[in-house]
Backbone:
């Protein structure tokens, strides 16, 4: 309702039985104005327009109406003014019937009665913030007598001055600079109970006063709290769930949480039960859920024993499945987290008695502790997850502390893994060749192809930095095919460039996954045909652990390659299974003795040779020769080693004594002659 509503002016009240057609007609077609003068003029016009035949009583009654209209429009602002405006717009015109006007005082009384008996707590507040009038509902809500609220500060009644933002918004409404504002406050009743109230402040039309309304939303807040608890807690263990955990973690990492007081550090124990899936699979999910609940209880006990911080106790949460976390705010250092982790392992080692089932479990725990400044929730969880993985890989049933250096290695490994496949297509790999020299005459008999990765970020990488990664993700098949083709093409090129010299063979390392994941026989046959290299000039090296125990497809592939004329060599012989029975069954033509045996032959630089190594090497050489195999000694670094190996009977040697791995152009100078020493 508004005192400025545009509507019809008040009509004159005629005496009973007296018809005033001219007045009714004029008022029905006219329109009142918004000012009091206009309303008086309308009333006067209505009186002046009485037909000549009207009775004196009717005329006097019409005249007496005008002051009432004037009083209604000039009444004080607020609900009274709204009531007057409503009255001004409620006159009705009924043809052939006398209009009737409800007295303004009666309608005003109705509005006041409605205000007083309304169940919504309300108060009219002046521009100074003092209560002009308040209804019974407000008095009851705040536990006061209605009469005592007059000229009380509304802000004090509903706690609007407790924070700066609310106080500023409230003052802006009082000054007419803001249309309205709403806030939620927690009020305390005189009887001691607390209640939640939604406070709304809005200006009254055409007035400097505002209407304050207060709704009790305690029941709604309680329902919201119950729903939030259900949303934020795990239904099985009743622990905080992942959502609440990350909410608490993010709040702890905010600058305002640690810049004033506290240690400014944060710690996390991230744990996973070892073998929990077996419990679910064998005993059922009901027993599994009981076990999780029991584990949650023991974790909570461990966290409570460690004490409390400014923010309360340590947060124990179930993040999902059999994963739990203990969040330590304001941690005092890694030793505190280590103590918690140790106590958790001890607590979980005690057997669990669950419905007649006695279960024993263990856990792997990743521990991270650092300064909160500069730490993100995502980064902290990633490091905790990585550390948990380390604990699992190191043997389970243990805790592991986050190691930045180890993590940097992991990050580098991940970066290499993600770029390895495209690197082959971009041509980032290159081959170097290390000579295989005859022990008797020093002539170069062959070369081993060694791949290098010219990484744009990490520089030149040796095979041990990326071959394991390639075997894990399967890219070794693509990379191995490229190495094989490039090496065969280079060997054929040397043969063509040195037609008068004895051709040298090229030895290429092959991973066992290449045998399983690709048709190695077809690849070799195709590449030999493509490059024109003779099969006997190609040697494929497989590690002892990959060859020994070969059966089925790998054994068939090796046999097919041998039948083709390709030489098969066992690399690092003597360090793996060393099952001599396989030597008689596998199509092997070369044994490459591991360098650990050859190092025992050193006499120079103060080294003391190991007689046992010499005896073992001599026995292996004799065995290989009796089986028709040739022997290559790896890691030959001194002339003394070379001489003793030659006397024992090794056929070829490989190592820094003869040459490091070099570019193809350097091999050109060695073909057909004696290998230079220490190139």
Residues:
């Amino acid at each position: 309702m508004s005192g400025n509503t545009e509507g019809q002016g008040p009509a004159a009240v005629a005496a009973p039985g007296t018809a005033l057609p001219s007045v009714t007609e004029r008022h029905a077609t006219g329109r009142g104005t918004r000012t009091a003068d206009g309303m008086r003029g309308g009333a006067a016009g209505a009186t002046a327009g009485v037909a000549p035949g009207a009775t004196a009583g009717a005329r006097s009654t019409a005249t007496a109406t005008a002051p009432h209209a004037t009083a209604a429009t000039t009444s004080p602002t607020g609900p009274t003014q709204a009531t007057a405006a409503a009255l001004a717009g409620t006159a009705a015109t009924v043809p052939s019937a006398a209009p009737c006007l409800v007295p303004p005082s009666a309608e005003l009384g109705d509005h006041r009665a409605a205000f007083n008996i309304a169940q919504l707590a309300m108060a009219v507040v002046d521009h100074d913030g003092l209560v002009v009038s308040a209804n019974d509902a407000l008095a009851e809500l705040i536990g006061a007598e209605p009469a005592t609220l007059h000229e009380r500060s509304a802000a004090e009644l509903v706690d609007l001055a407790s924070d700066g933002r609310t106080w500023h918004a409230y003052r802006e409404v009082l000054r007419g600079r803001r249309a309205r504002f709403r806030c939620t406050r927690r009020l305390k009743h005189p009887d001691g109970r607390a209640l939640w109230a939604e406070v709304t402040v809005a200006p009254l039309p055409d007035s400097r006063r505002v209407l304050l309304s207060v709704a009790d939303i305690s029941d709604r807040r309680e329902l919201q709290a119950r729903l939030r608890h259900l949303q934020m807690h795990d239904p099985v263990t009743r622990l905080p769930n992942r959502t609440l955990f990350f909410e608490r973690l993010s709040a702890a990492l905010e600058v305002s949480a640690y810049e004033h007081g506290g240690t400014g550090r944060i710690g996390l124990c991230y744990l996973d039960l070892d073998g929990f899936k077996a419990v679910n699979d064998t005993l059922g999910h009901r027993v599994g859920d009981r076990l999780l609940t029991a584990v949650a209880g023991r974790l909570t006990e461990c966290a409570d024993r460690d004490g409390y911080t400014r923010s309360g106790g340590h947060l124990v949460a179930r993040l999902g499945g059999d994963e739990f976390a203990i969040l330590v705010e304001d941690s005092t250092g890694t030793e505190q987290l280590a103590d918690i982790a140790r106590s958790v392992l001890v607590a979980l080692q005690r057997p669990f008695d669950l419905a007649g089932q006695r279960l024993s479990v263990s856990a792997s725990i990743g521990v991270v502790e650092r300064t909160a400044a500069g730490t993100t929730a995502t980064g902290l969880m990633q490091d905790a997850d990585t550390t948990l993985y380390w604990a699992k890989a190191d043997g389970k049933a243990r805790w592991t502390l986050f190691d930045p250096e180890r993590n940097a290695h992991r990050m580098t490994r991940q970066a290499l893994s993600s770029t390895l496949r495209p690197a082959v297509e971009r041509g980032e790999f290159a081959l170097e060749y290390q000579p295989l020299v005859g022990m008797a005459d020093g002539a170069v008999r062959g070369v081993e192809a060694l791949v290098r990765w010219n990484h744009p970020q990490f520089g030149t990488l040796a095979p041990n930095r990326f071959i394991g990664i390639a075997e894990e993700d399967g890219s070794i098949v693509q990379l191995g095919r490229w190495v094989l083709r490039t090496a065969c093409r280079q060997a054929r090129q040397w043969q063509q460039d040195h037609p008068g010299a004895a051709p040298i063979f090229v030895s290429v390392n092959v991973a066992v996954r290449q045998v399983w994941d690709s048709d190695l026989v077809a690849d070799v046959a195709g590449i030999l045909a493509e490059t024109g290299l003779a099969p006997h000039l190609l040697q494929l090296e497989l590690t002892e652990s990959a060859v020994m125990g070969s059966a089925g497809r790998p054994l068939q592939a090796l046999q097919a390659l041998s039948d083709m004329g390709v030489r098969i060599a066992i690399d690092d012989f003597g360090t793996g299974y060393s099952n001599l029975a396989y030597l008689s069954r596998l199509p092997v033509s070369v044994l490459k003795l591991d360098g650990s045996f050859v190092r025992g032959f050193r006499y120079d630089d103060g080294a003391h040779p190991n007689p046992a190594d010499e005896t073992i090497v001599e026995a292996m050489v004799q065995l290989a020769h009796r089986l028709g195999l040739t022997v290559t000694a790896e890691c030959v670094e001194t002339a003394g080693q070379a001489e003793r190996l030659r006397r024992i009977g090794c056929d070829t040697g490989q190592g820094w004594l003869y040459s490091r791995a070099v570019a193809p152009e350097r091999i050109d100078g060695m073909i057909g002659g004696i290998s230079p020493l220490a190139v």
User: Anything to note?
Assistant: The mean pLDDT is 82. The radius of gyration is 48 Å.
